[in-house]
Write a structure and sequence with these properties.
By secondary structure, the chain is of the alpha+beta class. It has one domain. It has four helices and eleven strands. The strands form two sheets. Strands 1, 2, 3, 4, 5, 6, 7, 8 and 11 form a nine-stranded antiparallel β-sheet that branches. It has a two-stranded antiparallel ribbon with strand order 9-10. A hairpin with a 2-residue loop joins strand 5 and strand 6. Helix 3 packs antiparallel against helix 4. It starts with a strand and ends in a 6-residue tail after the last helix.
Length: 197
């Protein structure tokens, strides 16, 4: 069953209620929350809440040093049988080296993004990866930011897996792999709205 709610706010809270226990048992106790004014907008942001000049991100300890993990989704709903079904309009997941205060002023090292409707004359891949990384292509150098490297839909679970496996973040529970697998299966089989991406 897709993520449903009485309204947009309720559906976003259900989404956060699914992801927060996954985050808390894998890489961070920082909680995702719906951000916006209930009932006053047709779209809400789901993200970590920032404050005091800090990036709205979770602090990670990686084998490369501290990094800030940002998870953000812009959501709206479509009416389904008297309820509201949650739909992701955009997502942005980033990893930025440094402590949260430092990371607030830096460009993310890696940025996974999705934009449902790029608009205008945009012809780039809606699901893509970017970052300020130099790539040598033949005799030329280009920046990854100059491209929209196609990725397909990237789930929060896969970003968390990357943080643990490749960046060396110490998982918060010994069964982190099973937690991510269960959450991913639930998202793909229960929550993913078919035909709405």
């Amino acid at each position: 069953m897709p993520i449903l709610g009485r309204d947009l706010w309720d559906a976003c809270r259900t989404f956060c209620d699914h992801l927060n226990p996954v985050l808390a048992r894998t890489v961070t106790q920082t909680r995702l929350v719906p951000i916006g004014r209930p009932g006053l907008s047709r779209q809400l942001q789901v993200a970590f809440r920032g404050g005091g000049g800090r990036l709205p991100a979770a602090r990670l300890r990686t084998r490369f040093g501290p990094m800030a993990l940002y998870i953000g989704q812009l959501c709206e709903t479509v009416p389904v049988g008297g309820q509201h079904q949650l739909v992701t309009v955009e997502y942005r997941y980033t990893l930025t080296p440094g402590e949260l205060e430092e990371a607030a002023g830096r460009e993310p090292l890696l940025r996974w993004e999705y934009v449902r409707e790029p608009g205008g004359d945009a012809r780039w891949c809606r699901h893509h990866l970017q970052g300020p990384i130099r790539l040598d292509v033949g005799r030329q150098s280009v920046m990854l930011n100059d491209w929209h490297l196609p990725t397909g839909y990237v789930t929060v679970e896969e970003v968390l897996r990357f943080c643990i496996v490749d960046l060396g973040v110490e998982p918060l529970a010994p069964d982190w792999h099973e937690i991510l697998e269960r959450s991913y299966r639930r998202f793909k089989h229960d929550f993913a709205p078919r035909g709405l991406a």
